[in-house]
Write a structure and sequence with these properties.
By secondary structure, the chain is mainly α. The chain has 6 helices and 2 strands. The protein has one domain (3-208). Strand 1 and strand 2 form a beta hairpin.
């Protein structure tokens, strides 16, 4: 292999390693981003004593779902963009005139990159990365909304309904992960428990959403 061909091969390897390092570092930084969910810290100070234990559970569950969505998002888009990049590089190597004197090296590099691109697509599709990312992202959004709802005074009266709503969010998330697509997302009103009757200050029942 002549010197220019070696430079091209080394440059390709360096670019691939740099992209891999960038993907891993982006995933790590997104996972440990200090500003992610920072409003929840202030929100917990607004909870009343009777709703704070449940609110703490909701906030922790939100962070778990949000962290899961970051990981699956990185896996899904990493495979997607990585496959596109490797496919483009495979076509590029086949057209490089600098490797014209090394057809075996050129063909081997193009074939290897095309193979890795196909493997990334297969991995993403078989592992259902997109569905798992979307299920966790929707569940995190539903938990975030529920965390804000617990600040309302009526939340202390509706603790049973709040627990039922948490169970509903978890159920919709799990069905989304395993492939049973729900008709409603975790945040949709139709997927939540029916409104309950809560007495007002005068003792008259009124409808209150869970």
């Amino acid at each position: 292999m002549n010197k220019p061909a070696k430079i091209v091969v080394l440059a390709a390897v360096f670019v691939i390693l740099a992209l891999l390092a960038g993907w891993l570092s982006t995933t790590y930084l997104a996972r440990n981003q200090p500003n992610r969910g920072v409003a929840m810290e202030d929100l917990m100070e607004l909870y009343r004593p009777d709703t704070k234990p449940l609110g703490t559970i909701v906030v922790k569950t939100y962070r778990e779902f949000r962290g899961n969505s970051v990981h699956w998002s990185a896996a899904y888009f990493g495979c997607l963009f990585g496959s596109a990049f490797l496919s483009a590089m495979a076509g590029l190597f086949l057209k490089l005139e600098i490797l014209a004197s090394q057809p075996k090296v050129r063909n081997d590099l193009a074939a290897a990159m095309a193979t890795f691109a196909a493997l990334l697509v297969t991995l993403s599709t078989t592992g259902d990365f997109q569905r798992k990312w979307q299920a966790n992202r929707a569940a995190a959004a539903a938990m975030e909304n529920l965390a804000y709802e617990l600040v309302r005074p009526a939340a202390a009266i509706n603790l049973e309904a709040i627990l039922t709503r948490i169970q509903t969010i978890n159920d919709v998330r799990n069905r989304g992960i395993i492939g049973e697509l729900a008709e409603n997302s975790p945040g949709d009103a139709a997927a939540l428990p029916a409104p309950t009757k809560v007495p007002d200050s005068e003792g008259t029942p009124k409808t209150s959403a869970p």
